[in-house]
Amino acid sequence: MTVDAIDLFQRFQQGDRRALARAITWVESGSAEGNAMIRMAFPLTGKAHVIGITGPPGAGKSTLVDRLASAFRRRGKSVGIVAVDPTSPFSGGAILGDRIRMQRTLSDPGVFMRSLASRGHLGGISMATGDVVTLLDAFGFEVILVETVGAGQSEVEIMELAHTTCVVLIPGMGDDIQAIKAGILEIGDVFACNKADREGADRTVTEIEMMLDLGHMGEPGINRWPADGAGGQPNAGALARLDRTGHHSADEVGGSSSWLTQAARHAALRHGTANPGDQSWRPPVVKTIAKDDQGVDSLADRMVEHLTFLTTTGRWDQLKQRDAAAKLRELLGGRAARMVLERARQAGDLDRLTQAVAGREIDPYSAADELLKTHFGVGR
Amino acid sequence: MERKLRVLVAKLGLDAHDRGAKVVARAYRDAGFEVIYTGIYQRPEAVAEAAIQEDVDVVAVSSLAGAHAVLIPQLIQLLKEQGVDDVLFLAGGVIPEDEVPQLLEAGVARVFGPGADLEEIIEYTKANVKRR
To answer: Which of A43, A287, B106, B124 could covalently link to A196 via disulfide, CB atoms 3.0 to 4.6 Å apart?
Structure first.
């Protein structure tokens, strides 16, 4: 471990914001100093509530993050913000403009905000985002808001990083909502219908509610199901919503098309079931007008309520296990691959087999097997 | 991995004209820099804090409203007070020639006037970014 890293970490521990900022730079560049910082910071982590904010471009995520940060500050929490914007695939450069929308909260010394470029990573966040969150957590921020790039259907990685994922939508998306139904709509623990002063807000809220009713029992928020077995049926509120919109009859809800059962199973893992004695979480939908600071306190309350659900059901600890497993998998995968590639390159096997695959003398699967057998000890 | 160079493009004070700032920001982006844009009407304190949190290599202030002679030295002083000594300061926009010496004196490395060549700005920046 370098003297520089140890020196910087000392300043970091004393609450020096410049040290935090420099540590983030090191971690982002993937340097040895960055790894050293994570090693030293990691034992201090595991306390922050990490909240992901995702949604399509223009939904108002940055403005909402600004107001949410203020809402958590009013609750006495210190707030770290990470906002990711896309890197140009052509130049490798990026314009990071999220600070423009976060003017209100950024003058507050209890808030620290860092803009990250996606640097070619496609999951809605950058490769280093998880490590940056680790640093903010270790620095002592109690709530960490992570804003993804404007997300479409498949930018769901935030779900793997955050404890609570908030999906931000806006009225008037019409069929777009249908289009993203299978994508980011599945990952929300809390939904915000932002720009709710626009026409069509009620309809948008109803559409999200309907979608949620298909996979969840109970009312928005925490549901505690009695141990005597009462419950386990779709609730009256959900059926009423379906009837009101007239899109589905109550009979259809009970139907078990395969996507529906699959969605239900997925939801059950994250949000619990209506089994007797169990607790479940039904994602709430909150109307917000971020620019006027309306509905933001309710949204923050719902996020805190979700945290309560996580801690009281043991899911908080499960998430830590999940994070640990995912991080180890990621690191091992990368390192093992580099190790095999390096050994194979030195032995000349990499070049030989690359040529062979290109020349169609051997298929890539067999070539990989051979490299693993020779250089990784598989099947020894 | 090669370190990405980060630039803060800033507008200070009551100066709404940010066309130039945006053009320069875009040029930096196209040259592979990560550009943080503050937006208009910023106080020196806010820009200093942004420069620290974003850990930028360069702070480029665009000025078209005449307050640069006061606000840019203030910004540089604020950062110096916090021990920031590895940032390259640049200024651009409409800055009268007789005000350039005092900006250089305050710590601005170079002032680019109207019609400055974008490529020259990029090349100058790359050549003069401080080693870390």
So the answer is: A287
